[in-house]
Specification:
Layout: E1 3-5, E2 12-14, E3 45-46, E4 53-54, E5 60-62, E6 65-67, E7 76-77, E8 80-86, H1 89-101, E9 107-109, H2 125-131, E10 135-140, H3 144-156
Antiparallel strand pairs: 1-2, 3-4, 5-6, 7-8, 8-10, 9-10
């Protein structure tokens, strides 16, 4: 399969990609794209999570990736974004199941069960340290916006679009 390497991050992208799915750099400079928030300015890049075109003023660079102000606090782990975090593993597993059922690639972290040990005065320091590591559900950067919408629709009781 043919690919186009991004000049910014050197990651391979599909030949017909308008932007780099890894860093947000606009690949097709021949097409004029305007900033989603400043329509009088040319976009220089896109948010890697929501794909909104951004001018230099609107773009926030985090670990060689571009984010918009709305997504600047989303934690990124390699090519994935954390879409859900909870100390309740059952709740996080339900979110994982909803996303997988709707075709999203999902990675989970810290889904080990937390065992409480009675030491005569309540839970032990072992269980408290495990609580500081909540279960995390991650999706690829380029699936984040759609996965976010899927969770929102599921929570509101709407039929999730496939």
């Amino acid at each position: 399969m043919e690919s186009l390497r991004c000049q910014q991050c050197e990651e391979p992208n599909a030949v017909d990609s308008e932007y780099c799915i890894y860093c947000g750099t606009i690949l097709n400079k021949s097409q004029l794209i305007l900033c989603a928030f400043h329509p009088d300015r040319l976009a220089q890049c896109v948010c890697v999570l929501c794909q909104q075109p951004l001018c230099e003023t609107c773009s926030i660079h985090v670990d060689k990736r571009v984010l918009c102000t709305f997504h600047q606090d989303v934690e990124l782990v390699e090519d994935f974004a954390i879409i859900y975090t909870s100390s309740d593993v059952t709740e996080a597993d339900l979110i994982r199941a909803v996303l997988e059922e709707n075709g999203f690639q999902v990675v989970v972290q810290n889904f080990d069960s937390i065992a409480y040990m009675w030491d005569g005065g309540g839970d032990s320091s072992v269980s408290r340290s495990n609580l500081s590591k909540p279960a995390r559900v991650l999706v690829p950067l380029w699936e984040y916006a759609d996965a976010e919408q899927c969770i929102e629709e599921w929570r509101s009781g709407q039929q999730v679009q496939e």
